[in-house]
User: Which sequence fits this backbone?
């Protein structure tokens, strides 16, 4: 029956919807027409709900926030980015942002589903039964999702900037939001992402101060480095010292560094592991 | 035996030059309707009267009624019938329906794809409907024409991109600033181009405009006409910092905005983009200003090139639009034919639609 789908099947369905959103937008661009925002938005919304169910099933089975391996982290990151898009997409009515979000959603979810090794083992009791650590992890990964959407917005900014500077305003460039709108979204997303990551680190630091031996230095250094990039970029942007293209490139570097830090975060966890199948039994 | 028919008769910019169209312009549509009420067999009538066309859409008991409408109209305008017949369009049945579809879609406009005609057709229909001179056929025809026009505008590129330099400049500003409601615009130069561009910005939502000219009295005159403020031309360098868009269109022999002046302004407002639109020849803005961060510089050639590209893109969409409209017109005509052959003449024997003569407000005569 439909409701008896496994968590991964729900997540495949979600990935399918994200892919459909991406293909709809691509088809519009290839035909030379405009990207229709509403169908893409609804497709992403459907994918988001399915992903929510899939992650819910996984979380219920594992008894906590599904952040126990690379597969779950990528899924949660995609879900976080799309959560933010669903709010921002309505506010800014940006069909191109929807197109790129569906692309990001499809890429992250399909990639994580297609690599069985990422979901072969999963760390259990990663939060040690401590809800604050669970909140720390959830907030940190959610902030990475925000940085994902920030990276998309920065990419759009760079495209828009290129189109205006190079005087190529036609074709799909004409569907891009304005420079100022994109800049505003970038600043807000960076601010929100930095605030979330700061909170996550604050919650995490309480645990770390009590049990310094149990937190890997590599993980600590990686997450603090990501936070520093975010905080410094936000500070410089607010002070008017990091602007336009340089700011957009910095945001892309921030997301790349966040993705790279995930390896360090995952490796530093307790090595207790079981297959997901074993846990689901 | 003659059959009831749908027809359109009139003159447009295609065959009637402006001096002829001036003579054909209807000054009192109420009076014209009064005259048309004497046309025998005329069941329904609507008049589309704009700067670029005068057209009569009618439904009559037979095709001869179209010639009677023409005779009444020419007599009223004191225009020779023979001359009118040389420049007129006269279409019946499916072709008449297709013509209205093309007109409402902007395909038949002088500036292909323009939007103003859609509102004008709507106004013409509303006026005819208010006077009671439309019936089942024209009601359906116009409503289908509006649907068809919306369809092609949404699904083709017939209306995409601006085709005048001033509007391209405004579009460019929206690409940078989004809504122009809070964008500050300074126009340097009070000639025709500067004034036209200022008008285009104002009409598209820019509320904070200022004008500066080498002749202060002329600047004040233009600013007064537009309802905007003025800035002293000599203090332009100091004022750039307060504006988001600077349009330059002076006839100065050398540049009036140096890169150094723009750079100095940007230092005080680094986070806000600055759009410089140089419509002057020779150029008003030093070209190297384009290299500054957050500064976007477009000159007359750049804008003209974009306008030309947009115009070509619209032209390329015409064939596709015609195909779409033709299918819809054929479908509608089948329906109308069935209606005309089955419905009895509601005013058989009466001279023209009763409500044609009802006096009513004039439809505006602007645009295409």
Assistant:
């Amino acid at each position: 029956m439909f409701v008896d789908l496994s968590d991964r099947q729900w997540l495949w369905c979600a990935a399918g919807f994200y892919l459909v959103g991406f293909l709809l937008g691509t088809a519009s661009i290839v035909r030379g027409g405009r990207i229709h925002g509403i169908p893409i938005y609804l497709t992403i919304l459907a994918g988001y709900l399915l992903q929510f169910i899939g992650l819910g099933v996984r979380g219920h089975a594992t008894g906590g926030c599904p952040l126990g391996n690379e597969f779950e982290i990528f899924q949660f990151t995609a879900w976080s980015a799309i959560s933010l898009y669903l709010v921002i997409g309505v506010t800014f009515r940006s069909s191109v942002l929807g197109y790129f979000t569906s692309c990001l959603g499809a890429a992250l979810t399909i990639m994580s589903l297609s690599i069985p090794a990422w979901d072969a083992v999963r760390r259990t009791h990663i939060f040690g039964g401590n809800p604050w650590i669970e909140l720390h992890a959830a907030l940190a990964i959610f902030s990475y999702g925000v940085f994902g959407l920030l990276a998309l917005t920065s990419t759009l900014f760079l495209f828009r900037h290129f189109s205006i500077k190079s005087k190529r305003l036609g074709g799909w460039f004409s569907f891009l939001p304005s420079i100022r709108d994109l800049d505003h979204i970038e600043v807000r997303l960076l601010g929100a992402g930095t605030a979330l990551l700061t909170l996550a680190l604050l919650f995490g630091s309480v645990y770390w101060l009590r049990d310094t031996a149990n937190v890997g230095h590599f993980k600590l250094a990686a997450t603090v480095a990501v936070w520093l990039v975010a905080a410094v970029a936000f500070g410089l942007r607010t002070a008017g010292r990091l602007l336009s293209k340089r700011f957009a490139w910095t945001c892309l570097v921030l997301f790349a560094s966040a993705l790279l830090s995930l390896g360090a975060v995952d490796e530093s966890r307790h090595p207790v592991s079981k297959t997901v199948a074993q846990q689901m039994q | 035996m003659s059959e009831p028919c749908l027809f359109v008769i009139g003159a447009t910019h295609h065959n009637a030059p402006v001096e002829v169209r001036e003579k054909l312009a209807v000054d009192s549509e109420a009076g014209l309707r009064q005259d048309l009420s004497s046309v025998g067999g005329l069941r329904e009538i609507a008049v589309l009267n704009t700067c670029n066309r005068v057209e009569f859409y009618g439904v009559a008991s037979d095709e001869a009624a179209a010639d009677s409408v023409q005779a009444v109209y020419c007599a009223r305008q004191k225009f020779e019938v023979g001359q009118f017949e040389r420049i007129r369009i006269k279409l019946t049945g499916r072709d008449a329906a297709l013509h209205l579809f093309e007109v409402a879609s902007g395909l038949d406009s002088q500036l292909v794809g323009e939007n103003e005609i859609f509102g004008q057709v709507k106004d013409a229909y509303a006026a005819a409907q208010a006077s009671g001179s439309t019936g089942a056929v024209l009601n359906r025809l116009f409503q289908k024409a509006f649907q068809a026009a919306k369809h092609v505008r949404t699904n083709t590129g017939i209306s995409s991109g601006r085709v005048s330099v001033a509007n391209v400049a405004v579009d460019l500003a929206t690409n940078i600033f989004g809504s122009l409601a809070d964008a500050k615009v300074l126009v340097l130069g009070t000639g025709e181009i500067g004034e036209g561009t200022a008008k285009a910005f104002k009409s598209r939502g820019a509320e904070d405009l200022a004008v500066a000219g080498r002749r202060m009295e002329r600047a004040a005159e233009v600013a007064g006409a537009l309802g905007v403020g003025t800035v002293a031309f000599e203090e332009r360098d100091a004022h750039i910092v307060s504006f988001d868009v600077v349009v330059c269109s002076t006839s100065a022999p050398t540049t009036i905005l140096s890169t150094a002046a723009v750079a100095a302004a940007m230092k005080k407002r680094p986070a806000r983009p600055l759009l410089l639109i140089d419509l002057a020849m020779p150029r008003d803005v030093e070209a190297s200003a384009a290299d500054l961060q957050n500064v976007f510089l477009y000159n007359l050639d750049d804008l003209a090139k974009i306008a030309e590209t947009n115009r070509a893109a619209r032209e390329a969409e015409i064939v596709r639009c015609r195909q779409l409209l033709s299918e819809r017109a054929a479908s509608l005509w089948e329906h109308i034919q069935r209606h005309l052959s089955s419905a009895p003449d509601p005013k058989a024997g009466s001279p023209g639609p009763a409500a044609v003569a009802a006096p009513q407000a004039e439809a505006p005569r602007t645009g295409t």
User: Anything to note?
Assistant: The beta strands of chain A are 121-123, 273-275. Residues 2-280 of chain A form one domain.
